[in-house]
């Protein structure tokens, strides 16, 4: 590999494209996923902002989820793709610290937001008469603020501690970004106490929101089961199943990485599982939550109709 100017404090990634025989294919797949995630989430935000029919609490929360996903995937994937093209794998200490902080803040905000979105669906289906009160605009803003506060607290608490440990001479991170467990393996000091603190944080940020998701959808499925319409039941079950599947992948992969003892998983497994909640989830969220339902597809058709309308007029003029 070509040598580049590096500082003694720089870290080196082992990367996701470490096998030459599959690196080109993986690069193409990750590039497609990245572009798809940006486009899908960008379209969602545009439609929700411009279509009055989507100005509801559910889509308000979804627009913020799309914003988080766009920022989330952009903190990791562009650096990884550029490094592959330039044949370099290094990241500065400041860059690693920034990436670690942004990653923790954004993923933390998403953990909380997904739990609150499940609560929103529970209220809409199980308590429809109280929905306007329980999910008022003020409550929605409080949910968004709470999600960002929880994520930011995690970033501000864990990042300074993680990056303050003395690191050994080998500064090679066996990962494709600065994720806490991979960085901590380079520390020369005892990290047992800190790992316990991080475990407690993960319980608060993973288990509690995930429990809210499971409880909310369990109540929703119970209510749906009592519906008289067979077709309505099938549609509701299919929607709930797709939502729970994506959320379970997101929370499950993170729980495996952060809450399972290190002796139960290898760095290679960590990298594969990290792909689920850092690369795949930002692409799947808009496809599963939004672009599959009639409200969003209707808004997309109206937006395309508005776009085509002026084009026809301009062609007629010329």
TrEMBL record:
SUPFAM superfamilies from the UniProt entry: Family A G protein-coupled receptor-like (SSF81321)
Membrane protein topology class: Multi-pass membrane protein
Membrane-spanning segments: 24-47, 59-81, 101-119, 139-161, 196-215, 236-260, 272-291
Keywords on record: Cell membrane, G-protein coupled receptor, Membrane, Olfaction, Receptor, Sensory transduction, Transducer, Transmembrane, Transmembrane helix
Pfam families: 7tm_4
Keyword Thylakoid on entry: no
Example GO molecular function: G protein-coupled receptor activity
Chief localization: membrane
Source organism superkingdom: Eukaryota
Compartments, as annotated in UniProt: Cell membrane
Domain G-protein coupled receptors family 1 profile: 40-289
Coiled coil, from the record: none
Cellular component annotations (GO), alphabetically ordered: plasma membrane
Biological role stated in the UniProt entry: Odorant receptor.
Family the UniProt entry places it in: Belongs to the G-protein coupled receptor 1 family.
Protein name as annotated: Olfactory receptor
